[in-house]
Amino acid sequence: MHTSSFFSYGLHFFTYLILGMWGSHTAFGQTTWSGVVTDGTQAVVGANVYLQNTYFGATTDTTGSFSFTADPADTSHLVISAVGYQTQERTVLNSKETASLNIHLKEASHTLQGVTISAGSFEASDKHQAVALKPLDIVTTAGALGDIAGALQTLPGTQTVGEDGRLFVRGGEGYETQVFIDGLLAHSPFNASVPGIPTRGRFSPFLFKGTTFTTGGYSAEYGQALSSALLLGTNDLAVQTQTDISLMTVGGSVSHQHRWEKSSVWAEGGYTDLTPYQWAVPQDVQWITAPRAWNGAAAYRHKTSSTGMLKLYTQVNRSKLALHQPNVEQLPDTELVSLENDNLYANVSFQEAIGKNWTWQSGVAFTYDEQQVIIDQSPIRQQQRGLHAKSVWTYDVNTNVVVRAGAEYFQDQFDWEMPSSEGDVALTPSLIDWRITQFVETDAYLSSRWVSRLGVRTEYSKLTDTWKASPRASLAYKTGKNSQVSLAYGTFHQAARPDYRAVNSGLADEQAAHYIANYQITQQGRTFRAEVYHKQYQQLVKFDPTQPYNPLAYNNQGDGYARGLDIFWRDRQSVNNLDYWISYSLIDTERNYRDFPTTAVPTFASKHNFSAVGKYFVTNWRTQLGASYSFASGRPYFNPENPQFHSDLTKDFHSLSVNVAWLIRQHIILYASATNVLGRDNVFGYKYASQPNESDSYNRIPVQPTAPRFFFVGMFITLSKDKMKNQLDTL
Questions:
Q1: End-to-end Cα separation, the chain, in angstroms
Q2: CATH number of domain containing 32
Q3: If residue 292 lies in a helix (H) or strand (E), which one and from where to where?
Q4: Which helix (H) or strand (E) holds 514?
Q5: Mean pLDDT of the chain, nearest integer
Q6: pLDDT of 32 higher than 70
Q7: What is the model's pLDDT at position 239?
Q8: Whole-angstrom distance, CA of residue 581 vs CA of residue 670
């Protein structure tokens, strides 16, 4: 269980989770949907035909035919997609029109016969064909607890770092993954936390209509991320007017959205408190104040023209927690650790098509984050302000060539107040930096089998007065009707952590080069991906831990590498009503950075990682059963009693999580879940004392979850005019 605070999305996520299984198609009579999909001349084999935002659907057979049974609604939205063809959406007003459908698909102009750039990228979008995940998959994964990062950790290339909660990708630390909302950087995308207590993402997964998770080699449009970029595209206009109420064992929320012809507004308020959970489940720490949070959010959407859209979004969070943690230096004594955090995020974006060939996107995002941590009566206050402005132009040269170019402005301010090494005088390191960037990138469909992407990104930093250039290149080749291979290369730069730069403002950007080869085949509801990669790090920050405030103790002489194999398999076809995927990652990585005395495997890296996720829908019971299992091999940790650095390993990580959802009425959902249901005693590492004790040995304490399990029960109610609506329609 992530014991850090549930924020707004945690409050209403579970409603979405359940409703995603049925959408608006759960009236008590059922309709058989059937038909034939062709391209005008021949049958389209392996096309996906499904009701939008549900799991009702089928895949066409060798004759192009499909058939499935679903619950009807007043209005149903049928989506038909196939590799190499334009995705078609059809609205059916009543069940009589579903008896027999003849569907004609057109060849996609920009995908030709289905070849796409897939190396290093997992895309979740109903608007694209060869995707590994759908938007609903992000939130219907047992054990993820509504956290986007938690769900993505079931994909290959990620590491299970249970004491942190952020995305660790292919040998990269958590800070090496950046989050972009509508193309704009979210400077503080994860909730504040204290050492040993995992964090969660701040944003609801149901704010977004599409998600792209890159594990490397991504577009030149995005920078300042050494390992990975998480690209989130927000929803457009709300579907209808409705009010949503969430009642849970850990809090509640109320939200309302109103839809007009060309605009919509949405607002939400919520409160969470994990005190009831801590009463019910024995804790391994002494809580003083259970994690709790207040939140408010609002969104406005306005369709300015047939092709234009204005979006505004803002969110505020306030959270706090306090606990006694063991003092490893003086066991069994404890030390007080407390946290208070205030966060504001605002995002404004605009998109418009100009003529037949041009598209313009522009936006501004602002982040304010302030937190105060007290550890053993020593206060540490951090304040961060971030601004990102961006403008992108896209030009369709013809049906085979697309050019994108853009410019960006970044501004960062970081203030850090802490006691001096003597504990009496407060030190206040700070930094202010602004950057200007430019990029240009071209997608060229060279033939029906070949597509290439070439780009370059340049950045200038005022703080260091330096320019950096980052070339990117990708190439894909269609090996068969449903298969392809892809290659990707790129260099990536990221500014050093702000607390390091606050001490030494002259630190250069850290650097990584990515080399990726990918094979993918998608056919009849099944997807297989295999990817090998090599990542070379340069200019990583190293420092002397005995001189934490001396600028001369910091340099860019660190380096490292990461290489490995990622495998992904998903099957939605073999067993009726069963959807599952499995992933496996093998990683070999070493670094010499930070305070490492030599090159070694970092403490967050597990050599083997495995995940299995399954979802089974019981139609007669109007119930979905879900389960997920995660495994990670032992991680290295520092043992001062072992002269070989980072040679000790923790025991393997195992976790089994389950969930069940029952549709009581069209607008009322009952949901229950349990994480690590078997109560596995997982250990993420060990914390040692700095000096030996009287027995000439070092005290140590394990780093592990604050409780072995987490249980959740919630009821979710949607109020609308006909009592037949649900939150899924807001997607």
A1: 27
A2: 2.60.40.1120
A3: strand 286-302
A4: strand 510-523
A5: 84
A6: yes
A7: 78
A8: 25
Cα(292)–Cα(370) distance, integer angstroms: 16
Q: What span, in angstroms and rounded, lies between the C-alpha atoms of 177 and 407?
A: 21
Determine the residue type at 643: P
The model's pLDDT over 288-343, given as tens digits with 9 standing for 90+, comes to 999 999 999 999 999 998 889 999 999 999 999 999 989 998 888 899 999 999 99
pLDDT(7) > 60: no
pLDDT at 4: 39
Query: Which of 104, 126, 156 is the last residue before a domain boundary?
Result: 104
Nearest-CA neighbor of 324 among 250, 400, 377?
377
CA distances in angstroms from 510 to 186, 501, 513, 548, listed in the order given: 20, 12, 11, 19
Q: Taking Cα atoms as reference points, which of 53, 269, 240, 301 lies closest to residue 721?
A: 240
CA distance 463 to 287: 42
Per the structure, the count of domains in the chain is 2
Cis peptide bond prior to 597, omega within 30° of 0: no
Residue the block writes with tokens 């949503």: 244
- Helix ranges, 225-346 (H): 275-280
**Whether residue 279 has pLDDT greater than 50:** yes
| Main-chain phi, psi angles of 96, to 5 degrees | -65, -25
Over the stretch 123-146, which tens digit does the pLDDT of each residue have? 543 344 334 556 667 767 888 877
> For residues 189 and 212, what is the distance between their CA atoms, to the nearest angstrom?
16
Same domain, 325 and 425: yes
DSSP assignment of 417-446 equals: EEE-TTSSSEE--EEEEEEEEEEEEEEEE-
CA nearest neighbour of 475 among 112, 169, 119, 206: 119
CA 689 vs. chain centroid, Å, equals: 35
The 10s digit of each residue's pLDDT in 367-416 is: 999 999 998 888 889 999 999 999 999 999 988 899 999 999 999 999 98
Q: In sequence order, what are the beta bridge partners of 554? A: 543
Dist CA 113 CA 253 (whole Å): 46
pLDDT tens, position by position, 718-729: 887 766 554 444
**Residue 131 maps to which CATH number?**
2.40.170.20
Domain boundary among 104, 132, 149: 104
Residues 167 and 208 in one domain: yes
**What pTM was computed for the model?**
0.83
pLDDT of 16 reads 34
Could you identify the residue written with the tokens 């990620």?
158
φ/ψ of residue 667, rounded to 5: -115, 10
Contacts of residue 440, Cβ cutoff 8 Å, sequence gap at least 6: 220, 403, 404, 405, 455, 456
Verify that 386 and 488 share a domain, yes or no: yes
Tell me whether residue 112 is in a domain.
no
Q: Sheet containing 228-234: which strands, arranged edge to edge?
A: 121-125, 208-214, 228-234, 177-181, 184-185
Tokens found for residue 276: 């009831």
Distances (CA, A) of 330 to 334, 335, 700, 701: 8, 10, 10, 11
Residues 637, 190, 709, 135, CA torsion sign: negative
Which of 627, 642, 718 shows the shortest CA–CA distance to 673? Answer: 627
**Nearest partner of 518 among 492, 489, 484, 491, judged by Cα:** 484
Secondary structure of residue 276 in the 3-state scheme: helix
Q: How do residues 633-671 score in pLDDT, each as one tens digit? A: 999 999 999 999 999 999 999 999 999 988 887 788 888
Range of the domain at 75: 21-104
| Domain annotation covers residue 1 | no
Share of the chain above pLDDT 70, in %: 86
Q: Does residue 3 lie within any of the structural domains?
A: no
- Cα-trace Rg, the chain: 26
Partner residues linked to 394 by β-bridges: 359, 404
Tally of CB atoms within 10 A around 203: 24
Report pLDDT for 386: 95
